[in-house]
């Protein structure tokens, strides 16, 4: 498979997917979202692959959705199409019949953080900047961010974290249970390699079967959350607060929200 914004390498029983827009901090534009959906759907047919690692090229994992893309479009219907691609990629990723590992360095924010949280195992470096920060541009989390935050934190804490949009380092995220391994800077790939070796030496088919039993039982809720996020995001896209949020972001100033 040839892609423009991502790279996929398969070796024996392991696949590595690299988000590859380093000059844009691996921000997810229309093309990357669609390519991720296509890639995850295709991986369902790779019967010999038992582990998938997701990483980011360059200085970060992913800065999230491409805010400049939002600024350049005043067509509110565009979010409907975007949300369809996001729903596709999330469902395909969540139901993959393999163990998924997010290897995080630098920033994992917004949609990038949602994608990481959808992984079975999350490894992040200590100086990582992890944030469900949609609130800063007047949006709600997408990429099933509500679903994954609730799974990891429970409803009350998930709401508070989403509302606050706080940027967490590896230590803070581990203490909350948002990641599984907090490692020294520069050591994420080493830790992931060790985990892969351990997993491949385990009865991994039984592990994957357990994943599928649990994830299949959660699918109705995941789909309901994705529907809610899609409707909510289209609604928020039309608010004055969202317009102010993205203009402030691009202008590198503090936003002035008015609840409109």
Automatic annotation (TrEMBL):
Cross-referenced InterPro entries: ClpP/crotonase-like_dom_sf (IPR029045), Enoyl-CoA_hydra/iso (IPR001753), Enoyl-CoA_hydra_C (IPR014748)
Segment forming the signal sequence: none
Protein known as: Enoyl-CoA hydratase
Family statement drawn from the similarity comment of this UniProt entry: Belongs to the enoyl-CoA hydratase/isomerase family.
Matches recorded under NCBIfam families: PRK07659.1 (NF005804)
């Amino acid at each position: 498979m040839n892609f423009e914004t991502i790279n996929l390498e398969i070796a024996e029983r392991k696949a590595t997917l690299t988000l590859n827009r380093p000059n844009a901090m691996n921000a997810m534009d229309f093309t990357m979202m669609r390519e991720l959906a296509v890639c995850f759907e295709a991986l369902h047919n790779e019967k010999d692959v038992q582990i998938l690692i997701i990483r980011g090229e360059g200085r970060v994992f992913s800065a999230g959705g491409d805010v400049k893309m939002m600024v350049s479009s005043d067509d509110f219907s565009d979010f409907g199409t975007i949300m369809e691609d996001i729903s596709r990629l999330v469902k395909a990723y969540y139901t993959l019949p393999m163990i998924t590992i997010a290897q995080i360095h630098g920033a994992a924010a917004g949609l990038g953080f949602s994608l990481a949280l959808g992984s079975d195992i999350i490894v992040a470096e200590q100086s990582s900047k992890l944030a469900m920060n949609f609130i800063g541009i007047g949006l709600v989390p997408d990429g099933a961010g509500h679903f994954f935050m609730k799974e990891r934190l429970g409803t009350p804490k998930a709401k508070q974290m989403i509302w606050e949009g706080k940027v967490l380092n590896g230590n803070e995220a581990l203490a909350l249970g948002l990641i599984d391994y907090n490692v020294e800077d520069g050591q994420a790939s080493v830790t992931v390699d060790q985990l892969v070796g351990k997993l491949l030496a385990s009865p991994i088919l039984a592990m994957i079967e357990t994943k599928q039993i649990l994830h299949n039982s959660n699918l109705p809720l995941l789909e309901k959350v994705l529907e809610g996020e899609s409707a909510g995001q289209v609604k928020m896209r039309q608010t004055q607060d969202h317009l102010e949020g993205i203009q402030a972001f691009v202008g590198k100033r503090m936003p002035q929200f008015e609840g409109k």
